[in-house]
């Protein structure tokens, strides 16, 4: 009923990691000020109600007008609003729904993403939401398991991954952004961009009462997520849906290895387990294709019990079956989309509206936060955003290289999948190096190239033992060819100098660290 392509999932996972690290390699480190403002004692709805607009066009913020309009207040939009507001920009945020989101993804923040929160002064947003620490992964395959810890030995004790309820995290960032007097959050749906003489001047939006409004600013940043309705105006979207997530919550359950995400390399899908609170464990089953068994008529529950259940380790299989029986089964398509922005003066895409990688990488929020660091630093020298020509020049520097893996099912994929698992199982520099890349702790593209080729060569070598065969030679050659076709264009685009010295990307990003407790950690990321 469903196309079973095991290795397409692993290939998408590994190459999405590849694209994520290449993007992350363009980031530089700037720590934010240690002066932290206390959150207002008023509730978030009261703050937003006080700041919302009543009718007509957008009213001006304190001063002469709005500097930046942000469409969307998810992870990217809320963090960006606080960051630009803290830098003195007058920000108007328009979000379709300011109530707490309820999603089954966006629940894992990598250690590198946590360091970006520190740089932005938002690290307290993972506090008081029952967030759980993540210090590594446990990989399960064919009854065996491998523990792969994040290489955090050189970092401050607070540095680790975090997992949590996505909505709680977003609300914390919205609340913090709302404490700034020059940031205004408003609930409304942006229906179109306002254009004049080839430049985006602002947005048109509709409030809950159905009233149409207009807001103007020299810079409009669209962060309205994976279902963006403004994307087509600002990029050439090519959205792919390779699989779907089926989500469950296991209540009052514990995983065998505390503070670790558990990944089961199953057939035909990969399965994630990770804590999202002190009493809840999220289970995500990655199902290939777009056609799913029906949840309503019980087909999905039967699929989870009969196909997925037997592959769950005994330690938490009972909790998994119990979660299926409770019936709160949710699904979500996994989308991937390469970034292909159009040069549009006055506007910029960010977050999932710009680029999506397979959620299995867990890198989406880390990439978004890293993008915000770049944009903040690019805009800092530009005091007047109304200078259209200067603004366009700065924004051009924001475009960065991303690559999305696309392929078809074959035996080479299966071999690559097995090779990757065995490579990670070797431990030592093999697993630590790859885990540092996956965790966002090492943005050096050269290291990624080396590990990517090492996995391909390792896989090809396995096929030649104990004696080479024509089939083994053919599949091995395809493994190496596949790796080359992905990596060599990246090397050409990045340049040899940048491959070896990613810290020389731009002088824009250099600033002295000021948070003493983590400044050494930030400096460690090279």
Name the features.
disordered C terminus; five-stranded parallel sheet; membrane; alpha/beta; 526 residues; 16 helices; 19% strand; 37% helix; EC 1.14.14.17; seven-stranded mixed sheet; FAD; disordered N terminus
Q: What is the mean predicted local confidence, pLDDT?
A: 76
| Distance linking N and C termini | 47 Å
Q: Tell me the major beta sheet.
A: 7 strands, mixed
Q: Beta fraction of the residues?
A: 15-25%
Can you count the helices? 16
For the largest sheet, list the strands in their spatial order.
6-5-14-15-16-13-17
Q: Extract low-pLDDT stretches.
A: 1-10, 17-43, 49-64, 400-410, 493-526
Shape: globular
In which range does the helix fraction lie? 25-40%
The secondary-structure class comes to: alpha/beta
Q: Give a count of the beta strands, DSSP E runs of length 2 or more.
A: 18
Rg, Cα atoms, Å: 23 Å
Enzyme class: oxidoreductase
Organism: Carya illinoinensis
EC number: 1.14.14.17
GO cellular component, one term: membrane
Describe the structure.
This protein has about 525 residues and is α/β, with parallel strands linked by helices. The protein has helices at about 5-25, 45-50, 75-85, 110-120, 165-180, 230-235, 300-310, 315-325, 365-380, 390-395, 410-425, 430-440, 445-465, 470-495, 495-500, 520-525; strands at about 70, 90-95, 110, 130-135, 135-140, 145-150, 160-165, 185, 190-195, 200-205, 210-215, 220, 240-250, 260-265, 270-275, 280-290, 330-335, 345-350. The chain has a 7-stranded mixed β-sheet with strand order 6-5-14-15-16-13-17, sandwiched between helices. It has a 5-stranded parallel β-sheet with strand order 8-2-1-12-18. Strands 3-7-4 form a 3-stranded antiparallel β-sheet. α3 packs parallel to α5 and α13 runs antiparallel to α14 (about 470-495). The longest helix is centred in the C-terminal third of the chain and has 25 residues, at about 470-495. The protein is globular.
């Amino acid at each position: 009923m469903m196309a079973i392509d095991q290795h397409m999932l692993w290939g998408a996972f590994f190459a999405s990691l590849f694209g994520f690290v290449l993007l992350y390699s363009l980031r530089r480190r700037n720590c934010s000020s240690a002066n932290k403002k206390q959150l207002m004692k008023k509730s978030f709805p009261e703050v937003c109600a006080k700041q919302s607009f009543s009718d007509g066009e957008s009213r001006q913020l304190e001063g002469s007008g709005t500097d930046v309009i942000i469409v969307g207040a998810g992870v990217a939009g809320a963090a960006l609003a606080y960051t630009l507001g803290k830098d003195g920009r007058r920000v108007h945020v328009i979000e379709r729904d300011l109530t707490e989101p309820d999603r089954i993804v966006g629940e894992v923040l990598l250690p590198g993403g946590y360091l970006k929160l520190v740089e932005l002064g938002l690290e307290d947003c993972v506090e008081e939401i029952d967030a759980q620490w993540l210090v590594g992964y446990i990989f399960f395959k064919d009854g065996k398991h491998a523990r792969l810890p994040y290489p955090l030995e050189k970092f401050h004790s607070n540095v680790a991954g975090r997992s949590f309820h996505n909505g709680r995290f977003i609300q914390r960032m919205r609340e913090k952004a709302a404490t700034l007097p020059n940031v205004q959050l408003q609930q409304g749906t942006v229906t179109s961009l306002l254009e004049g003489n080839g430049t985006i001047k602002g947005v048109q939006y509709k409030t809950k009462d159905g009233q149409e409004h207009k807001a103007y600013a020299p810079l409009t940043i669209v962060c309205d997520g994976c279902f963006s309705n403004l994307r087509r105006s600002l990029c050439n979207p090519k959205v792919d849906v390779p699989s779907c997530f089926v989500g469950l919550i296991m209540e009052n359950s514990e995983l065998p290895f505390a503070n670790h995400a558990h990944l089961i390399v199953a057939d035909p899908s990969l399965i994630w387990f990770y804590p999202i609170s002190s009493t809840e464990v999220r289970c995500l089953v990655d199902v290939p294709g777009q056609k799913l068994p029906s949840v309503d008529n019980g087909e999905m529950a039967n699929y989870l019990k009969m196909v997925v259940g037997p592959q769950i380790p005994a330690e938490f299989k009972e909790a998994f079956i119990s979660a299926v029986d409770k019936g709160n089964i949710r699904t979500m398509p996994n989308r991937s989309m390469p970034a292909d922005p159009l040069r549009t003066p006055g506007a910029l895409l960010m977050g999932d509206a710009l680029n999506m990688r397979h959620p299995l990488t867990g890198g989406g929020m880390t990439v978004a936060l890293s993008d915000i660091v770049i944009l903040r630093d690019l805009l800092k020298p530009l005091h007047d955003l109304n200078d259209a020509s200067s603004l366009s020049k700065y924004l051009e520097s924001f475009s960065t290289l991303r690559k999305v893996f696309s392929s078809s099912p074959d035996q080479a994929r299966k071999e690559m999948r097995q090779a990757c698992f065995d490579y990670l199982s070797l431990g030592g520099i093999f697993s630590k190096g790859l885990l540092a890349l996956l965790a966002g702790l090492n943005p050096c593209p050269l290291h990624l190239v080396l590990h990517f080729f090492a996995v391909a060569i390792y896989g090809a070598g396995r096929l030649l033992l104990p004696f080479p065969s024509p089939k083994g030679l053919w599949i091995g050659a395809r493994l190496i060819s596949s790796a080359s076709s992905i990596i060599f264009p990246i090397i050409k685009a990045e340049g040899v100098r940048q491959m070896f010295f990613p810290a020389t990307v731009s002088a824009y990003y250099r600033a002295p660290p000021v948070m003493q407790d983590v400044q050494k950690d930030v400096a460690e990321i090279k």
